[in-house]
Amino acid sequence: MDGRGPHLLLRDRRELGARGVQPSEAMRQFQLLRNPPPPPFVIRPCTAGDGIERLTLSDRRRLARLAGDALRAGRFSRFVPASGAATRLFSDLLQLDQERKTSGNNIRSILKTNQNSFARSSAHFFASLPRFALYEPLRRLLGDQRLNVARLLAAQNYDPILDALIHRKGMNVTRRPKGLIPFHWVGRKVVSAFEEHLREALPLRDKNRSVRVHFTVARDFLSEIKKLGQERIRFIKKHFGITVRLTFSLQNSETDTLALERGKGLVRGLDGRLLLRPGGHGALLKNLEKTLGDIVFMKNIDNVPVSSFQAEGNVWRQALAGRLIEVQTRGNAWARVLDRGGASRSERIEAEEFIQVTLGRVIPRSVPLPKRIAWMLHLLNRPWRVCGMVPNTGEPGGGPFWVKSPWGDSRQILEVAQLGVHQKKLLKKSTHFNPVDMVVGLRDGEGHPYSLDRFADLSQVIVGRKRFEGREIRTLEHPGLWNGGMAHWNTVFVEIPADLFHPVKTINDLLRPGHCSRKKSMGTR
Which of 493, 514, 494 is nearest to 503 (CA)? Predict the structure, then answer.
């Protein structure tokens, strides 16, 4: 390694080439790891009336009618990033397992003597285990081993239960995708987050009773997920007469990223090969583009409640879609007026007012007329998104902020990891956060798909620190899918009720009301 770039061996170049990572990209990543870019210039959090819209009941009804026309025309689809493993979901149980190995004590004694947060969380998990949907497959698995889970719980003999959950020969839950973890009871049936997303998407069916859903998934589980998907598709078609057009994609190995060890250059494993890691959900921008969607609803895999909580959320998403159609249609209309030339003074003023009111962007009065028109066209000809924002109740996650950029102040979704040390005090003033519940428009005024890479801010990478084989290393993630990946999109924030947000960040979150109701039917009429 020298001051210009990393020293790559011949086999390194071959391995990078096999993954589709060009030497120039390896150089770019190396430089970003050595000298991370500065954080975005954050001005202030977005708040209601200052970057976040509030919709009245009348607004929602009007917007729902707009959405209804697009729904019947078949313009809607759903995109769910779902390739992540459930490791974080079971982090407390993994820490409990590590304590068991280190101390040599059984779980019962650890939980009695240890008051750390992981111990309290684990104790709550075991005490509530029969309420979880994963209780049923766990009961069957232990039954095959001639063990009775109810008796084990009564005796506080938790070690066989934990072994059955996390070991490779058991349920192996920490290495499986979060989407395959048993989430809910539906009558006597256990269903996963994948299945619940299919059910929640059914109201997006068009006039031909067809709905499109796309998941990004992990390669090792693609065949299992496809099989499960086909089973649900047949069930939904038979019982509800709805055709689900289900598609999948994998995170491209071209988006893998290198890591750096201080003073030693690029990180290598014990075998001497370069460490290449998945580049975060921002690497899924191409996956989103390749769906060729028009108006696309996006949600995280874990944010899906039981059916009794889904109806209100779907009503609000219709309103978000209507707002997207409204602003996108007006934006495209103004772009056509300006692009044809000869726009009147009043038309130019109205176009500027639309940009200022809708996007909060102001053109300095000193900008001459030709540049003003070019500036407006530059802003209007890009993807749109309308993002639901919920009032901040202490949930972890990114939030909406006003950020300074060369083209004026813009609304951005930023993660905590993107904020500088001195900017994190702004979090105390933040009133809303991002639940990842948004509707995006991926086509221009002529109906052609956008090339989404053009509208990403590649400088908004996330450089973090992790441990690898006992060493502290510096890691790199691409700009987040809805953070830097959509940094140059036209963005509208809309407040939605907090009770539409049902995240599952730890396993005990499945005990929240939105995940606990038992229903007798699978599907939505």
Answer: 514
Residues 6 or more apart whose Cβ sits within 8 Å of residue 122: 92, 93, 96, 107, 111
- Predicted TM-score (pTM) of this structure: 0.92
Distances (CA, A) of 233 to 203, 229, 292, 339: 15, 6, 21, 45
Residues whose CB falls within 8 Å of the CB of residue 446, separated by 6 or more in sequence, listed in order: none
Structure tokens given for 346? 């009043």
Give per-residue pLDDT as tens, 44-76: 999 999 999 999 999 999 999 999 999 999 999
Beta bridge partners of 440: 296, 385
Instruction: Quickly count helices (H) and strands (E) in the chain.
Output: 15, 19
Q: What are the phi and psi torsion angles at 183 (to 5°)?
A: -105, -50
Q: How far apart are CA 419 and CA 513, in angstroms?
A: 33
CA count, 13 A, side-chain hemisphere, 79: 27
Q: Which residues of 10-22 are buried (b: 16+ CB within 10 A; e: fewer)?
A: eebeeebeeeebe
Closest CA to 524 of 118, 103, 203, 178: 203
H/E stretch holding 97 reads helix 91-103
pLDDT digits (tens, 9 = 90+) for 476-524: 999 999 999 999 999 999 999 999 999 999 999 999 999 985 443 333 3
d(CA 74, CA 67): 11
> And the tokens for 303?
């944010």
d(CA 289, CA 286): 5
**Residue 284 and residue 481 in contact, taking contact as beta carbons nearer than 8 Å:** yes
Cβ atoms of 81 and 284 within 8 Å: the answer is: yes
Neighbours of 415 (CB within 10 A): 18
The CA distance from 133 to 139, in Å, is 11
Per DSSP, the residues of 8-31 read --HHHHHHHHHHT--HHHHHHHHH
Beta strands in 351-461 (DSSP E): 384-391, 399-404, 410-414, 432-433, 437-441
Q: Are 438 and 387 in contact (CB under 8 A)?
A: yes
